[in-house]
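Reminder to self: tokens first, then the designed residues, so the page reads top to bottom the way the pipeline ran.
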């Protein structure tokens, strides 16, 4: 079965590392990748308006069943990575994090391991409604780029039962591309994420 995967990453800092990950999947006949946009297209959408960029990113997620967050040192705090994560949950995509700090960038430099982006986005229950939350300045706050309540039926994992934020990372796997031989194993990691989400 062909699996179409969306890759979320910090474009300016990690595009070189992300392309290295992408290239190991291109040779696989049962994997298709998405989320690799020309930087000028991304920047043009960003300059147009926030809504234009949100539409652009939602379109990129169409027809995908898994979202793979390629995590570098600063990925977790990126606004648009968080938006891609939230939209992936709403879409029912499987989610996983793959740390890419062990890959060299175009200057041949290794990175620094960052926080798991899926540990900085979560869900909570208030007045019988579920909302997204994000970590800002060390505190959980209501997620500002999608403020509507969501249904427990929209979640492929257990819905929260209190106002204590449940991190998405609780339900998702995290891997290290270099230490865990991502070149050989990433296709399997993606399949595991799809299976966890029932995709």
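Designed residues (199 positions):
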């Amino acid at each position: 079965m062909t699996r179409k995967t969306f890759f979320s990453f910090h474009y300016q800092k990690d595009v070189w590392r992300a392309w290295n990950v992408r290239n190991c999947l291109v040779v696989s006949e049962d994997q298709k990748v998405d989320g690799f946009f020309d930087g000028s297209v991304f920047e043009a959408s960003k300059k147009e308006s926030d809504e234009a960029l949100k539409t652009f990113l939602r379109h990129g997620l169409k027809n995908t069943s898994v979202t793979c967050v390629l995590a570098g040192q600063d990925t977790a705090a990126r606004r648009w990575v968080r938006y891609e994560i939230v939209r992936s949950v709403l879409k029912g995509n499987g989610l996983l994090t793959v740390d890419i700090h062990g890959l060299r960038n175009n200057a041949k430099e290794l990175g620094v391991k960052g926080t798991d982006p899926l540990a900085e986005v979560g869900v909570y229950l208030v007045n019988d409604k579920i909302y997204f939350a994000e970590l800002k300045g060390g505190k959980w706050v209501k997620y500002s780029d999608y403020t509507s309540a969501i249904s427990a039926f929209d979640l492929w994992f257990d819905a929260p039962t209190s106002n204590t934020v449940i991190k998405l990372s609780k339900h998702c796997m995290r891997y290290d591309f270099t230490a865990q031989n991502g070149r050989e194993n990433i296709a399997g990691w993606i399949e595991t994420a799809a299976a966890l989400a029932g995709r």
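Strands lie at 3-8, 31-34, 66-71, 94-99, 121-126, 129-136, 139-142, 166-167, 173-176.
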